[in-house]
Each structure stands twice: as structure tokens, then as C-alpha cells.
Amino acid sequence: MKPQMQRGSGDSKGLFVSSTGTGVGKTVVTAGIAAYLHQIRKRKLQLWKPVQSGVIMGDPEADSYRLRMGSGMTELPEEMLATWTLRDPLAPWMAFERADIAFSFTALLEEGRKRLEQQAFLLIEGAGGIAVPFSQRHTMADMAHELRVPLLIVSSPGLGTVSHTVTAVHYARERGNTDIAIAFSGPPTMAEVKEAEENARMIETMADVPVLGHVPWLPQPDRARATESSAWAMWQEQWLASFTRMTRFTQWLHERE
Ligand SMILES: Nc1ncnc2c1ncn2[C@@H]1O[C@H](COP(=O)(O)OP(=O)(O)OP(=O)(O)O)[C@@H](O)[C@H]1O
Ligand SMILES: C[C@H](N)[C@H](N)CCCCCC(=O)O
Ligand SMILES: [Mg+2]
């Protein structure tokens, strides 16, 4: 595997978490990485969801809510976490259009660069998969590239993942990204260990990217318990107990902190 670092200017550090599609596990993985960097590594952190759609602020289903509670960074106001919260559950391009909002990619990048300058590691969760558009011209991959941060693509461990993941990596590269890794997220029922390992090997060989491992399957507190900080504390404790043993993943993170 070629070591390919993609870094912001100066001391800016961050990570863009994307995926092969929507609903694969970006929020769970981003919250889990944040809990690890914040609680175990004691790293100064910022969390950012540039655009979320299909929710309202404060809804326990909103990514901004789940990132804040899942990371344990409850001192962060939820409003700081998400720049745009759009009602319609659509790709940002169409969600902006339907809400009659004139979206500016340049302004979003400016905000990203300011956030990167704040002497804290910036964890960004994209919306949907890697090719999801903010606008006619710009996608999630463009944002990761423009901000010069490494890209983590969350994908499924099971049948179908090889084509989805290899395609996603090729697309990300075509849009300029060089430092790319994969994390599997999915229930144990989705793939036997042997199958997930074989899928990882095919992806690594075909796309020349590291597959950092299969994160724990650990459902977050449901809507009924989403306001209970003890339920989130238990989720973090269980997540960290498993995640800290994923040495390939944690090593990859340490090299980019
Ligand atoms: N590792 C995991 N453990 C437990 N549940 C998971 C895991 N990964 C994904 N899920 C579940 O799968 C669903 C989708 O996950 P998640 O919301 O993290 O996806 P996403 O990629 O962030 O979606 P979006 O594109 O809407 O932002 C959720 O119900 C979530 O709880
Ligand atoms: C509403 C959903 N949860 C996401 N935030 C947006 C997903 C957009 C997916 C667009 C697509 O790939 O077709
Ligand atoms: Mg999400």
C-alpha cells in the first residue's frame, strides 16, 4: 500500500467520513471515532455535519444530535455541529433547491477552512455517499479534496460491497483525493468473518486502499432513550472497549492526528 498523506495547510488536521451510500454507518463511526479521540486520546476536537437533510434540529434522529450524544461532547451546542439542516430527506442539491436556498460551495469551504484553523482535530461527516451532490458541480468528494483532509469511506462488509467500495474509491480519486481508507460497518448477520475478510482482501487489492477493519455492531440508544445521558455513556463504554482493540484503525488515526 502506498503511503499517501493528504493534509491541510499548517497544523490543520481533520478527517472526512463518507460512505458508499446513505445509511451505511457514517454517524455511528464518526461518533465512535470522536469518542475515542476525545476520551482516550484527549484530543481537542470539533465535529461538523455540513449539511443534514430529512430532519429538524434537536430531533433525536438528527445526525447532529447523535454525533453530539455519541461522542460525549455535550458541551458543543448542537447548532454548532450542523451548518445546514434541511427538511426534505434528499441529496443536499435537491433539498436546497426545494427549500429555495441559494447554496454556495465556496462559502461552505470557507467555513471548513476556518474550522480547520481552530487548533482542534476536525471530524466531518458527509451526507449520503461519496458522489452525493451539494450542487450541480460539487459533491462530497470535492469537499474532502478541497479541505485537504484524509477520507474514510464507511462501507458494508457483506455481499455487494466489493463493487460499491471499489467504485467509490475510484470516484474519490478521480476528484483528487489521495489519502483514502475503508471501514466496514454492518451487523454480524451481514457477512461471516471469512466473507468479510475476503471482501476486504479484494478491495485492498483492487483499489489499493487499506481496509481498517469491521467496527463493532452496537446500536445507539433508540428514540425512547435518546435523551438519557447514561444510555449514551454505556454506548461509549462498549464502543471504546471494542474500538481500542482495532489496532490497525487506531494506528491509522494516530498517524493523521
Ligand atoms: N456499527 C453500527 N452499530 C450499530 N448500528 C449501526 C452501525 N452502523 C450502522 N448502524 C445503524 O444503521 C443505520 C444507519 O447508520 P447511520 O445513521 O450511521 O448511517 P449514515 O451513513 O450516517 O446515514 P446518512 O447518510 O443518513 O448520514 C442506523 O440505524 C444505525 O444505528
Ligand atoms: C436523507 C438521508 N438520510 C441523507 N442525509 C441524504 C442522502 C442522499 C442520498 C442521495 C443519493 O445517493 O441518491
Ligand atoms: Mg449520518
UniProtKB/TrEMBL annotation:
Catalytic reaction annotation: (7R,8S)-8-amino-7-(carboxyamino)nonanoate + ATP = (4R,5S)-dethiobiotin + ADP + phosphate + H(+); (7R,8S)-7,8-diammoniononanoate + CO2 + ATP = (4R,5S)-dethiobiotin + ADP + phosphate + 3 H(+)
Binding-site list for ATP: G23, V24, G25, K26, T27, V28, D63, E125, G126, A127, G128, P216, W217, L218
Name the UniProt record assigns to this protein: ATP-dependent dethiobiotin synthetase BioD
Binding-site positions, Mg(2+): T27, D63, E125
SUPFAM superfamilies, per database record: P-loop containing nucleoside triphosphate hydrolases
Cofactor entry: Mg(2+)
Keyword presence, Transmembrane helix: yes
Enzyme class, UniProt record, top EC level: ligase
